Amino acid sequence: MTTTKPMANLNQSSLNGASVTTVSGEGTTVLSAAAIAAMDKILACPSLPSLPGVAIKVLELTRDPNVSIGKIADLVQNDPALASKVLKTINSSFYALAHPCPSIPRAMSLLGLNTVKAIVLGFSLVDSAKKVGEGGGFDLSVYWRRCVYGAAGARMLAIATKRCDPEEAFLGGLLQDIGVLATFSAMKDSYGKLVAAVGVDHDELAQLERQTLGFDHTHVGAKLAERWRFPAQVVECIAKHHSPQSAQIEYESLVRCVHLGGLAAGALTLQDSRKKMGGFIVRGREWFEFTPDVSKAHVQTIAKNSVELSKMLDLRTGAAPDTTTILAQAHEQMLQANEGIQNEAIELRRSNSELSIKTVTDPLTGAFNRAHFDEQSEAMFTSCVAGKKPFSALFIDADKFKSVNDTHGHKAGDAVLIELSKRLRESVGKAGVVCRYGGEEFAILLPGIGLEKAARVAEILRAGLERKAISLANTGAKANEITVTVSVGVASTDAEEFNFANASALVHAADQGLYVAKRAGRNRVMTCVEAAKSEFAQAATGNLTAVASAVLTGPSRTILLVEDDALASKLLEMVLGKREDVRASFAKSGEEAMEMMIAVKFDVLISDVRLPGMDGVDLVRKLRTDAKSCPGILVLTSADPSLRIKAIGAGADLFVDKMELCSTLDACLDKIFAVKPISVAA
Q1: Per residue in 348-357, pLDDT tens?
Q2: DSSP of 506-519, one letter per residue?
Q3: pLDDT for position 137
Q4: Do 182 and 39 contact (CB within 8 A), yes or no?
Q5: pTM score, two decimals?
Q6: Which ranges in the chain are annotated with CATH 3.40.50.2300?
Q7: How far apart are the two ends of the chain, measured CA to CA in Å?
Q8: CA quadruple 667, 668, 669, 675: dihedral, nearest 10
Q9: Cα-based torsion angle of the residue sequence 76, 79, 84, 87 in order, rounded to the nearest 10 degrees
Q10: With contact defined as beta carbons under 8 Å apart, do 449 and 432 qualify?
Q11: Distance separating alpha carbons of residues 55 and 61, to the nearest angstrom
């Protein structure tokens, strides 16, 4: 994090001490312990804006997908003043109803639950914020002007693009800067001076906050919204409205609409609007394929809607903007290919490209990387389950890929992986997320898609890859092209008789489906349900334990590796992935290994001696006293030879140098498999 000299007379927290990484503001930000403590102090301030009881109750009720319209209507109608405001708003030109709406229940029937919820929360936020007041350098009307114009813009853009819920966009726009209000209410004059130092361009505020305070208003706002238990997508808008490129993929369009709404607000409210208007045109074209004329028309509509929204919320946001002058400036700017627009486009491409390359993309194949897969699988699983939508994962493995490298060379192998990734991404398009899971294995996340459709997608991918050979030109290979087949495992939250507790369990089931597909002859698709009922299953019970037991008790060796060192674990995983005669699972602690062995009987346990909690020696000793779950061969590893006697004394069949294991795993496995296991505890 870049640091600058703090502003005079501004209370600044020390940035020394432990740090925590968080995603907000401009993507990934390192927050020091002192900054976190200062932010917590702000959130504990008694003068912070707070939601009234009716708003909290509305949020609580709307979290229930089965809540009745009547129940929400009764709640709103119990507050006559609020009900009157809601009806007045619904009947305004902002919502453009064909006929007047006489009641709250009727309004909910016409416009939906989300619309009424957004209106109720909008009025509640405005009312709760009125007690904050103003201070040196902080102009509350300027604050509300940006929020109102941003909210009107986000809602209009959501309607125009049909990419997300307009009322969620409205709430995201209205709430995007709630962290500014919260920070000001806690720090008053000192924060007011910081705001004043920034000047009129709000986008520069977050950067100065991070340089001076160690955190920014997006961190504070997101935490406050979480405390109020706002929906995750609204929290994401608050956290990422300055960094839409880092938004979670399922909320990407929503955050983009909020970000564009903020640019429109700047274009319509700043004296020099050209930079914001240029940004709006550039991003609108890149994200939603808006032509410049369409962008200008949208800005005109946003200006009109913003004036109406200000009246509805009874907020003073200044005179109506002069859109004729603003758009004339934009037109002149486009005709002259103004440097500001060009720089905006270049900067946008550069920042997006750098972020993608550094944080989420596999450099060889162009697919998303394993870290992005882990993050998105959890987020999509949680979101889909909460929204009662299916969620599927595909695991795809190139059949006999080792022979490609052995026969044609690693350059040819790389060419195959690059082409596989390209075809997968082209086939899936925007319906899913393609990731390189590791080695020659790819994974695809399909939010909103159930098992049956996911299996069809998998079969289309498999057949398409088999049909068209892959060129090996310019790789030095012995052949000009090669046909590569894949095996695919499929799992979904709506799979028959499966009840996945989390994304990891679903991913594991897809992986097991892949393994059964390879055992059944390769070049085929196997769902988790089919895998459980296949001839390789010990019993057709249809649950995950049966699948795991089935695939882990065949002719190949099954290994459980217990290793808490991430680098060593990754190294071992890569080498084991190339061996077709072994199937490996990994645990990070002795306790986790014991849990895994309750459901699955492994042939070999290979454990590091030094582990968090139960160490490797204690793990081996415990397994020797419990023959029921004890693997056939127990191996302990360490770089410290003095531990050999202790390891063998605990009942290990073999003690292996850890560095030797990592660097020459193939040779070590041959030595391990040749061991005749001992049958009694030492």
Answers
A1: 556 555 555 5
A2: HHHHHHHHHHHHHH
A3: 60
A4: no
A5: 0.48
A6: 555-682
A7: 54
A8: 120
A9: 0
A10: yes
A11: 10
